[in-house]
Amino acid sequence: MRALEVEVDAHGVRRCGLLTQGIVMEPTIDIVAMAPADADGVLAIFAEALLAGQASFETEAPSWAAWDAAHLADCRLAAHSRDTLVGWAALSSVSSPCAYAGVAEVSVYVAAPARGQGVGRELLRHLVAASEAAGLWTLQASIFPENVASVRLHERCGFRVVGRRERIGQLHGVWRDTLLLERRSPTVGAS
C-alpha cells in the first residue's frame, strides 16, 4: 500500500510524493498559488471533467475571462507534477450580501491520470487553509450524489452533508439532485 508523504521546502511550497517502504516515489506534487500561465490547463481539466457528466451542470468550459471573474482572486491553487498542471482548486462567492461575505463555494478538479493519488485531498486541504487565512468561515460544495469520490473527498476534509436538493436542475434534459456539503471553520467566526 502506498501513502502520501508531504513536506514543505524552504520556499513554503508543499511537496507531496508517494511513500513506498519509506522511499518517496515520483511523481512529486507541488501545491502553489494559481498563476496566469495555468489558465489553459485549468480550463482543459474542467472541460475533461464536464465530459464525464458528474462534475457540474455546465456543459462546456467557459472562457478564461468568465472563469476568472467567477472565482475569488485570493483562493486559487494549482497542483503541478513535473511542471504539468494535474489539478486545481478555487473558491467563488455564493451571494453578494455582506452577511455572506465569509461563505464561498468550493471547486476542486483533478486531471484523470492524476486521480486517486491524493492530489484532490491536498488541494482541498490547502484550499481550506487559504480560505481561513482570507477570513472565510464557511465553505460549501454542491455535488451530484453519484460523484461518490468527490463526496468522500470532501467528507475526509471536514465537510458534512447538510441536505439533498432534489431535482434542482437539468443536465442534458435529465433532472438531477445535488448534495449540499459544508465545512464550518473552527477558528474563523467561531466567537
**Biggest sheet overview:** 9 strands, mixed
Portion in helices: 10-25%
Work out the helix count: 4
Give the total of domains: 1
Mean of all residue-level pLDDT scores: 87
Strand order of the largest sheet: 1-2-3-4-5-6-7-9-8
How far apart are the first and last residues' alpha carbons, in Å?
A: 42 Å
**SSE pattern:** EEEHHEEEHEHEE
Report the C-alpha radius of gyration, rounded: 17 Å
Looking at this structure, what is the CATH superfamily?
Gcn5-related N-acetyltransferase (GNAT)
In the CATH hierarchy, what is the class?
Answer: Alpha Beta
Structural class: alpha+beta
Low-confidence stretches: 1-25
Query: Can you tell me the CATH architecture?
Result: 3-Layer(aba) Sandwich
Shape: globular
The percentage of residues in β strands lies in 35-45%
**CATH-defined topology:** Aminopeptidase
Number of strands: 9
Structure characteristics:
191 residues, alpha+beta, Aminopeptidase, 40% strand, disordered N terminus
Characterise this structure.
By secondary structure, this protein is an alpha+beta fold. It has a single domain, classed as Gcn5-related N-acetyltransferase (GNAT) (Aminopeptidase, 3-Layer(aba) Sandwich), CATH 3.40.630.30. The chain has 4 helices and 9 strands; from the N terminus they run E-E-E-H-H-E-E-E-H-E-H-E-E. Strand 1 and strand 2 form a beta hairpin. The longest helix is centred in the middle third of the chain and has 15 residues, at 119-133. It is globular. The chain starts with a strand and ends in a 7-residue tail after the last strand.
